[in-house]
Amino acid sequence: MSQVRRILQVCLLLIPALVAGIPPAAAEYADVVLNRRAEKEGMRPVIFPHWFHRIRFRCKVCHQELGFKMRVGSNDVRMSDIVEGKFCGACHNGDVAWAPDQCDLCHSAKRGLPTGIYGGHETLGPGRW
Amino acid sequence: MPTWIIVAALLLVNAPVLAGPWDKLREDGVHDPRSPAINRLQEPGDALSKLTPDSAGNMVRWVQSLEKGEINPRANLRPDTKIRLYDSDVMLNLNGGMPMVKFPHRQHTLWLDCANCHDHLFKAEAGANKLSMLAILNGEQCGVCHGAVSFPLTECFRCHNTAKPGGKPPRPSLPIAIPAGAVPPK
Asked: What is the ipTM for the molecules in this complex?
């Protein structure tokens, strides 16, 4: 471990440079932007906040009962599905949570943002660099 | 030098920058400050500052927050969905230089269902999986969740939490001290 520690200590010297160079932390950890079609069809991209939902629901509700696959962009969510009570619409139906007519609450992202997980914490593995 | 050292070092170096305090939605870089909803959505800090604090990710120690009853998230929508819990620790990383990893089923199944991991991520048999830190850093195995939604991979010793016989005890936090000033003020 001592070699590791030496390398890490050297890297630490770089922190001030990185602090100055990196734009302010983007988004809350685990925020998801969904923009496969929204912007092409004239709407702002959608922001799904994990932090907000996990206070109210355990992961298994969405990722098991409702069947959301755990890979950003892998669920083909369409507005028509939501209105029919699928995906977000399983709760955003005017019963468990407010209804899909509140367009702006979901479609709240800056234009131009691609689909992805934000918050500066995406696993920075080599495969995703 | 093994790639994982570089990756881990980069993660560590970036940790204080990436963790940050809670940004205001209009300044967080993803919300459109001109969106009509910007004043209607809840600010993360308003909700998260009331929960058990942490040093990374959402800055909330989610497991403790749940166990203390600060939050009580629903476990099912339909009354007939079976809620499966399992209380068993599995020891991983028995041979490397890092402390061992005690994987706790109990804390995981409070949040997750068995099918979130078994068998597409892990075979349900102790020692049957070839795990690797590089794969984890690459967003596979434990890294599917840790580094995306659950506490991030900078928290080495929250996973490498158990000393090997005769080995050094795991440290409570990062292996190195973060200089004062590197962590943004709360």
From this structure: 0.82
